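Recall that a protein's primary structure is simply its ordered list of amino acids. Everything else, from secondary elements to tertiary packing, is in principle encoded there. The following example makes that idea concrete.
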Amino acid sequence: MKSALAMVAVAGLLLFMAGAAHSSSDSRPDPPASFASVLLALRTAVTATRNDLQHERYDAAHPSYGVCYNLANNVDAEYDNGVQYDLTNDVNFQIGRLETDIGHVRGDLQSLKADDKVLANDGDPAPAGESETIANGYGAISTAIGIANGYIKLANRYSMQAYDLANSIASKHCSGQGPSGPPSPIAAIGG
């Protein structure tokens, strides 16, 4: 009975990990479908952050009703309600989703290893392709983390550029105005 359950678990993980089995031209496994959808959402959130930075730059270059009014009502608003909102809500949310998905896949891979031990204890061989599936699973996790950390680096750069822009206007023209302090960077996802 344990062997049958282990085989069902292996089959399920093999189907889930099928998205990781096809290698791209750089020889890294493609992320599983769940990673790909979250990475797309993360990329979209970082793109929104970049777009808000571009709006902030436009607002800074085209002051309306004076530099300090423009800083308070346009540039700072774009920084707080655009760039920082994107980071705090959208980017962080997608990172949390990805970390959850990675945790589930890691758990599945650990279960697969444990099921392999059960099979071995019952005298049954591991299913064909199991070690490749495990390696592809860990490779997909590594790939997803690398891609996400690249997006995190971009998001942090956009955030700092947005802060620097608003802060430079405040320190040159509008003492006491501008952002309250530099943004806290988003931490990279650990391996």
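The radius of gyration is 23 Å. The helical segments are 2-16, 18-21, 33-61, 67-121, 130-173.
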